[in-house]
Write a structure and sequence with these properties.
single chain, 322 residues, alpha/beta, D-Maltodextrin-Binding Protein, domain 2, 2 domains, ten-stranded mixed sheet, 19% strand
């Protein structure tokens, strides 16, 4: 065979093989790493979406909880996974933005080591306390903390995360001493608030909404610019006199960097379809969350701006995590 013909044939075979592999994706189960404990907002988000993603992709979706270090353990695992589309990360603002500006030796860089796909929802963060705490509103909680320095214990999903930062913002603006108790996720912290082992905590609505409705915790304020549509009687932190205690958390999907573009597109489109499926949207809304999607390029720009914004917030709050 003519050498030039052999070269052309090899190129065509290579191109055909690459196309066949791309078309075959996915050909095995897909793992979505949730870097927090089971039962938390991230976990609930993925378990709400997993059945629909299984239908859309034709492969089982495995939700893998890898809790610890404010999401760093799970995020690092995904960042170092093969960029083949079979390992995804379900992250929060804490994992992809805040960790970037609070940890001096973070083992991953969000914009370097990940391919952003899309957010899937946003949620309001709310301040709750155990019913035994003698505070009916945020001002009364601050007064209690001033009267009992260090005795008001406040949980969080981990050092340096959104929930921890909300607490630090409050402590700074109110000039009070509260004891921070970090957990490996929001769910176990909420369990201890409900049990009365903690005074309270800032927490995202999806994981605590049922307890508020059941009267097992008392909602004092929402840390957002406007009241929540799900609990319209709960005032904002701004209305309570603490305008600097505001944040908006989001839950999102990412892949390891250098994942082939066709795989990125297929996973992105499937995730967007899953989020917009009526039953999934109803589950999100029922939990007190608002569905949200973007293109990969839009989300990359969003993350870059969010990292810069949190850098300013963390510097102003004086939060440092070793």
């Amino acid at each position: 065979m003519n050498p030039s013909v052999r070269i052309c044939t090899a190129i065509l075979l290579a191109a055909w093989s690459a196309g066949a592999i791309a078309q075959a994706f996915p050909s095995k189960p897909i793992r979505i790493v949730v870097p927090f404990s089971a039962g938390g907002p991230s976990d609930l988000t993925m378990r709400s979406m997993a059945p629909r993603l299984t239908e859309l992709l034709g492969q089982p979706i495995i939700v893998d909880n890898r809790a610890g270090a404010t999401g760093i353990i799970g995020a690092e695992m995904v960042a170092k996974s093969p960029p083949d589309g079979y390992t995804l990360l379900n992250a929060t603002a804490s994992v992809v933005a805040i960790n970037m500006v609070t940890y001096p030796k973070l083992p991953y860089d969000t914009l370097r080591d990940f391919q952003p796909l899309t957010p899937v929802m946003t949620t309001t963060t709310i301040l709750v306390v155990h019913p035994s705490v003698p505070a009916k509103n945020l001002r009364e909680l601050v007064a209690l903390a001033k009267a009992r320095p260090g005795q008001v214990s406040m949980g969080s999903a981990g050092n340096g995360g959104t929930l921890h930062l909300a607490l630090e913002m409050l402590k700074k603006q109110a000039t009070v001493d509260m004891t921070h108790v970090p957990y490996k996720g929001a769910a176990p912290a909420v369990v201890d608030v409900v049990a009365g082992q903690l005074s309270g905590m800032f927490v995202d609505l999806p994981v605590v909404s049922p307890y508020i409705k059941a009267g097992r915790v008392r909602a004092l304020a929402v840390a957002s610019p406007k009241r929540s549509a799900y609990f319209p009687d709960v005032p904002t932190t701004r209305e309570a006199g603490f305008p600097n205690v505001e944040l908006q958390n989001y839950y999102c999907m990412l892949l390891p960097a250098k994942t082939p573009r066709d795989i990125v597109s297929k996973l992105h489109d499937s995730i967007v379809k899953a989020v917009n499926t009526p039953v999934v949207r109803e589950k999100f809304i029922g939990l007190g969350a608002d569905p949200l999607t973007m293109t990969p390029d839009e989300f990359t720009k969003f993350l870059r701006a969010d990292i810069e914004m949190w850098g300013r917030v963390v510097k102003a709050a004086g939060v440092k995590v070793d």
